[in-house]
Amino acid sequence: MFLKNNTLVLILLPLICLISCKQKEVHEQFLEEEITMGSSSEWVVDDEEFEIVEVIGTLEQSLRDAGLVDVEQVIPGIFVDLKYSTSDNFFGQDVYGDLKRCYLQPVVADMLKKAHEKLKEEHPDLTFLVYDGVRPISVQQILWDNLDKPDSIKPLYVADPKVGGLHNYGVAVDLTLANAETGEALDMGTTYDYFGYPAYPDREVQMLREGILTNEHISNREILRKVMKHGGFTGIGSEWWHFNAYSLKDAAARFQLVK
To answer: 36 or 205: whose pLDDT is higher?
Structure first.
């Protein structure tokens, strides 16, 4: 009897190992398929199709309803880091909430695409890192109301929401250059939203002479300005990162303020 039992164990042991290995193989295959399925927008389970619905916040939906477009859908390969969706801005507060994508008027997004194509043609290792695009008037009002400055000088920092600025029409963009692989911003000599002469394109010669800016800083800025000009944008004298697609007069004639 003892011998029979031992013989039975010897016979069953390879079979048990085979079943166990097969179960492990099936489990690993299931996990692999599950991970692959996780990246799909549609699943099919037992012949039934399920669609993954993207959750859109109220602010973002209002931008889409206003006809604006997500720049990352127009220009693959760029990076977006909306500074007003963080506290990393001169205001020190998150005023965009769950908005993480940058939106612009469709024609402006196409202009930015043209600028990006020029950048990739001349500097394939670089791309754009976008800090801000459209800024609804409702957000502009928050910035205006909470800016700790006299009303007489507030327009030096933010546009008066009663008048509106180019960001409020979705025709201005704040951006820098970045490594195309890592998304790391190039050194422009100052951070985004820096207030002071080192950020002024109009003062670059002076800042270079005083040793505050380097030739590398100015060279990086010149690359950005060149490709943005190719796309049809113009810069301003006080912020190296800010570019306009239209004048305020033309923007008001062509577009509605984004509420």
So the answer is: 205
